[in-house]
Structures are given as C-alpha cells and as structure tokens.
Amino acid sequence: MPPESQQRVITVAPLPAEKCAYALARYSRSPDSIRDSLEWVRSHDSQKFLEHFYFQYGHASIADLGHVVMCFEGVSELVAAEIEDEPLWDGQARSSRYQNFGQTGFITPPEVNQTDAAVYSAAASGLLSAYQSIHSAMVQFLREKLPRPDAMSPPAYERNIAARAFDVARYLLFWGVPTGVGQVTSIRTLEKQIRRLKASDYQEARELADEMTAACSRPPSCGFDSQPPDPVAPTLARHVDADPFTATARANLRRWAEQNLPPRSMPDPAGVDLLRPTNTPADIAATLLYTVTDRPFRELYELMCGWGERRRAEVIEVALERRARRDELPRAFRGGLYAFDIIMDIGAYRDLHRHRRCQQFRQPDSDALGFETPGALVEAGLAARYETAIRSALDAFRKLPAPARDYVLPFGTRCRRLFKMDFAEAEYMSRLRSGVKGHFSYRRIAWEMKRQMEQLEPELGRWIDATPPWIEDPLKR
Q1: Which of 225, 457, 432 lies closest to 337, judged by CA?
Q2: What is the pLDDT, as a whole number, of residue 232?
Q3: Domain locations along the chain
Q4: What is the pTM of this model?
Q5: What is the pLDDT of residue 230?
Q6: How far apart are CA 259 and CA 254, in angstroms?
Q7: Which of 106, 109, 221, 303 could form a cystine bridge with 404, CB 3.0-4.6 A?
Q8: Quick one: which of 207, 337, 222, 319 has its CA closest to 274?
C-alpha cells in the first residue's frame, strides 16, 4: 500500500451534508489535497459559505455535493408518490408484495370535515376488509392450483404463494393506506422537493414539508454515532420556502384549457400508445396541457401541430407567466425521443414510477377510466366480492370533495400517465418489467411497449428482448 502522500484514491468518512458540500466545493476551487480541505472545513463555518454562494449567488452545483438520508414513516401512499416524484431521486418505498398492508389501517385526509370523514372511513374500512379476505382466499386458491415442487422448501413455497396472493389483493389497496419511504438525496434535490411539497394541493404533503424543514435544522434522529452530531442541513432550513410558480402555472393552464380547447375528438387508447414527436413546440405545449386535462397525448399533440405558432406560444406563455429568475422551466420542456401514453392501474404506476431515466407526467386521477379486475380473481370466483368493494369506494370518491377524495381511489383504478424516454430506456423497461418475476399488470404494459416500438421503429424494436405475458412461472421470484 503506498504512503498517504502517494495515494490516488482517497475515501472520506460520512460528513454532515452541508460540511461535505463545503469541503468538496473548496477542494474543486483549490490545489490542496482533500485532507487539507477537510481540515479547513473543521475551522470554518460551512453555513456562511452556503449562505453566500448557494442561496445568494445561486451556485446550485455546490448543493449536489452534500447528501441527506431521510425517511418518512406513516405517510399515505398518495404522499409517498408525491415525495418520489423527483427525476434525480434515490430511494425505495415499502413493497405491497412482501407485507400485509391490511394490518396498518388508513390515513384520513386532514382537510375533510366530520361528515366527509365518516364517508371516507366507511369506504376505506370496506376496502381493507375485502383486501384481507381476498388475500386469504387467494392463498388457498393458489395452494390448490400450484402444488409445491419437490425442489422447493416449504418456507420458500409459502413466501411465494403469499406474494402472488398480495399481487392480486393489492388492487384493493388505495392511496390512503400508510407506507414508509427511505431516500438519499442531494441538498439541491431536497430543496426542490420541500418547495414542491409546500405548494402541493394536499394538506398532508404541505404539513410533511414543514416537518422536513424543521428536521433539517436539528441533528439526525438516529444513527451509529455516539457523539451528538451537527444539524442535518441548517442553512437549507432557513431558506426553503414554497414553490408558487409550479402551482400557479398548473392553475393557469387548467383554466386556459377549459376556456380554449375544443371538445374531445379522440377516444381513449387501449393500454399503450407510442408517438415520436417531431414538432418540439407542439410537443411542449401538448405536454403542458396533458397534465391539466383528461385527454390522450396524441389528441393534444395533433391539435398543437395543427395550430399556428402564435396559438402554441400562447400555451407556453400561460405556463411561464409567473416564472421568476431562479425558477427552472417546467418538466414539460424536458423529454425524450419517444412518448408512451399509458392507461394502467394505479398499482402498476407505483411500480413504473421508480424509473428515473425518463420524464414522467401525470394526469389528475379520477374514476373516469374505470378499474381493472385481475383474471386470477375471476378464475378463483372472487370477482363479485372484489368489484363490490371497488364500486363502493368509487361511489365514496364521487361524494367526497377534492382533493381529499383522491385518498379513497383503489389501486385497481385506471389512470393515465405519459413517459418520455430514449430507446435505451424503452428497451430497459420492456426487458426488465416483462420478466416472469414481475407483477402481471406491468408485464402486459412492458410487452405492449415492445410491440408498439416494433411497429414504430421496426429496425430497433426487434432488439428488445421482452418476455411475452403468456410465459409464466408463478413460483419464481
């Protein structure tokens, strides 16, 4: 092993996020060794440095050099999806395949009154009761249908059977069930995340953002160090505020769409619809409108292509009207070669939402697209019990006020999402998500992505090695 002075690879022990950012920023701006930069940081105030260069001068890359580990416990699935909706995000949420969500109860939206809370509670309790009973019935059905192979141990067999049963029962979970999320993000991503959550339509998300801000000003809640550590990100805690631009742009676009778009002219596509937009301004305008309407992306894109430059510019102007100097352009200005407009159940979206090498756009959830009934439920004779619980929840959704009503939407409810990506990500998603270990819902989507690519780009589509959904290995995990 070479002496320290000759080492070319130097590892650094974990540091408080802001001190790490300060040390690496100084390291990039001086000829000193990282050891010297660390000594410097010990005797100088990292908060003053970040205050000056990051928050005043806008040297945003500095905030990418410090990372924070943060976990969220007892948040709703709805807010978990809001937390995770960051392109530069690393983390995981609790899996509905490996634990019984029926034992965790549910979260009541904080904005509902007593009467609405009773309607919500009855629907939520009904869904969880059906979830428990259908999971038990599916376990018994799968044991009879799929006997244990001699080569598989009884514990492994039972785990696989339970997981497959959860795959079916999860259609009865809903946005209001509690979950946990663990994340590792840079200070910059954390700032964007908090600002976005503070401007959320959901009170739970806004309250959580305030708790995140407060947590940044305190030492970590847990860890391995015996000595009291420094606060997590105290400078960030003093400066982070709500992001009014995104919320205002969304409201303005929604109002503009209601006043200016013609009646719908295109039916909902079945499953997956793939486009390769070639008109960039039309693509951006269509994507902006996609997130505030219930229309297929193809319809919006063709409409924007048919409009003149001045009319398309009006859409973009509405979106950017309140943009301040430090506000980034909306996500609609980012994209990829291919646009997959997908109708899927909410549970499948929670799985595909994990993919970060693409740009994702959500339409408001509703009951307009109906719901999925897994074929296994029909085969097991459980479809009537399932559909009764789903229809009862959707009836409660129609009675409850927005946005709190979203909490009662079951995971079996269909939603519409737009994924923009390059071919490499399309190949990866199709190949990974079509595998026999995956959930049957997103396996169908992944296979259809391959088929759509074969039609649009025959030379490229043939290179996607996806597994057809009719090839199954139910006991493989």
Answers
A1: 457
A2: 86
A3: 244-326
A4: 0.92
A5: 81
A6: 9
A7: 109
A8: 337
Amino acid identity, position 429: M
Beta bridge partners of 418: 341, 361
Task: Give the torsion through C-alpha atoms of 207, 289, 84, 337, to 10 deg.
Answer: -160
Instruction: Tell me what pLDDT residue 136 has.
Output: 94
Burial of 350 (0-12, 13-18, 19+ CB in 10 A): buried
CA distances from 164 to 158, 334, 383, 436, 438 (A): 10, 37, 17, 12, 10
Contacts of 455 (CB under 8 A, 6+ apart): 274, 461
Provide the terminal-to-terminal Cα distance of the chain, rounded to the nearest Å.
43
The structure tokens listed for 47 are 């908060």
Angle at the Cα of 67 from the Cα atoms of 64 and 70, rounded to 5 degrees: 135
Helices 114-145 and 154-169 cross at an angle (nearest 10°) of: 140
Show the DSSP H helices in 85-243 as ranges.
114-145, 154-169, 187-198, 203-216, 234-239
Q: Residue 57's closest CA among 67, 65, 48, 44? A: 48
Question: Cα separation of 183 and 72, whole Å?
Answer: 9
In the numeric block, the tokens 């000193």 are attached to: 32
For 220, half-sphere exposure in the C-beta direction (CA atoms, 13 angstrom radius) is 16
